[in-house]
What we know:
alpha/beta; five-stranded parallel beta sheet; 33 strands
Amino acid sequence: MPKAVLLKNYGIPNLAVPSKKSADQKNLSLFDLSSHHRAKTALDFAIKMRDPGFNVFVIAGSRTGTMEATLNYIKSNLSDVPPPCDLVYLNNFKEPSKPYFCKFPTGIANKFKEELGQTIRKIKESLLKNFADPEFIKAIKKEEQSVEHMVQKTLDKVRHFAVSHQLDIHRAKDESLVIVFKTEKGFTPVEELPDSMQKKLAPLLKKIHEGLASLTQIALSEGDNLSERLDHLKRSRASEVINPHLEKLEKAYATVNGMQEWIHAMQEDMLKHLHLFLNTQNDLKKKDEVSLDKWYAIHVLVSNDGMSHLPVILEPNPSYENLFGSIKYYTTPMGGFETDFTMIFPGSLHKANGGILVLRGEELANNPQTWHFLKAALRDKEIRIEELYRVAGVPLLEAPDPQPIPLDVQIVLVGDPKWYYSFFFADDEFQDYFKIKSDIDATISIGPKNLEIISCLLQEYCIKELKYAVESSALKYVISYGCRLANHRKKITADISVFKDILKEASVFAKTDSKKSIRQEDVVHAIEGRHRRNSKFQDLEQEYLEEDLIMIKTRGMATGQINGLTVQSIGSETFGSPSRITARTYMGRHGVINIEHAVDMGGPLQHKGVLSLEGFLKGLLAKYFPISFSANITFEQNYTGVEGDSASIAELLAILSSLGNVPLRQDIAITGSMNQFGLVQPIGSVNEKVEGFYYACKRQGLTGTQGVMIPKGNETNLNLLPEVSKAIDEGKFSVWSFDDVFDAVELFTGLESGHQMFLKETDKTKETVFGKVYEQLRFYDTELKKRLLDTEMN
């Protein structure tokens, strides 16, 4: 009798989910689930270690809600760690294009910036007031008059000599000095006198010119001396005004590293540029002069004022500028572009400096240039702002080149397993920087604690986000549906976002019916609606089956053909469908010929399955005489290719049927791979495969004898849709599980397999499947030997 086991009650499990949120279940997160224990331990270790070389990659599905949970978990574990220093750029008065970097105690930078601004305004007011003081103006004029008196005294001496010789020195309209000759009619410039007269006066004119030249030298020398004395006077007066203000500022921020030196440099620059303070206009006219507000200021790049813990920054788009910052430009009235150190904008690395930066793995993978610079920043432990768009352009004079900022950040990447392994195998340096793997399981074991956590999280989501309560039956149904999503009867999916999506869709039905809570029927409608939306191609295939456009028999028996099961994925739609597998056997020595492989339509796994079944056949059937048959196998009406080994048992049955001329049941489909010893191995997508054949049978009419054979190892994966599960429980459809190919042989043929005859000496004439196969093979072998002998004799 067949040893295959008829299965019952393999619909979606009815889990014991808590109906109410416990009072002690507060501040729960996904990291409280057992599926996150390994990842939680890794994150805890990384946070405690806080070493920039030990960055973390959190491995999780793309829609598991892991990003939000990771952010919240990290923040909660850093709640008692004080925030880092403020990051500031200071003007470099000697080289304005190379501003200095400076750290300020947390939350102090903006305070200093405000106090510095007030100090500059006070200094300007004081300088204007002091330089307008009558006594100071009098002292300035006294110095100027002393020079004027000396110059005038020298000029008087030259004039006295000139007058004594009928000459004089007059000042022209343009303030130049002109030598004139006295006549009866008045004074005539010597240049207008006759040449004879000029020649006569030449000795006198020479002495007068020498005197004027000496006067010019004295004027220039005294002018320089006057400038030095006035500058000294002004600097002395300015120092008296500036020093008290800056000393007060310096004393208040003496603990800030480098601040004393910078204030001294600013003081020196103020004394060199007093005109900036003494000009009464806010915006100076000269192109090379800047306003006080920008020149004597600091640029707060990052302020952690008001922050209670280390920064945890999520950067959704890790482009170079978003990570490393940028330098902005503004247009001038003449249409040009200018910038200064206050136009430096921070990136996420600056904002997260001293804390943790969280990135999405797929987004970083999509920015390979950023990854290159990020590795360099982690290697050198500093943040450099480079204007990449200018690298291939014309160099700009005095282009901004801010001082690099020391980097102290821990990076957490969150992404699918494929992104982790893409980085791991594509870049050898990846392991040098991301030494901690925080791996989240894709499924959650069913247990009271896990179910309680999931229940609490979903109840909280419904109340806070959907503004709906959720009934216990609805909550129980949606969490139980997680077993199907996990393809396991003892586990549910860790993708909590799917639960949330279903509940959100269910809330629409609750709202339509004017209900105050989400009911089980709302959840059922939401899940059924999802299935309907994603079943276009499945429905189309069922129509083709009904119209015999796809030739599948779900009744009767046939020789050399069997119903295998395949899974198709088209976009978001995944469904199972039956496929007719046929075999034709004949006399020969070629063994199994895989038509799909011969025409390059079969993948390597599919061909591996064929070779495994061929190994089984040769190991079992060739004990008494060489393989004496050839067999062609194929998937009928296959136009897209085949991959996977889950049809290898179906292919074997088709070959045995053809060899032994034993008809196979067409009302049963089978899935399962096999090894070379005939043992059945589990396969994937078992639910979709069972349901695919069920819908095909339903289209052609349920008989009560139809069903599917699945590997025994897949029993734990069965989570059939309610309609299919109900049909099985009512006896309209069946699912059997089996351990080896011989169980399948007996169920499909209704005969004993008789395989023992090949394992030990038994009666080989008994009416069994393998007995018939043996007789056919013996006939083939006899005929082949006879023909070979005839050929040799001829």
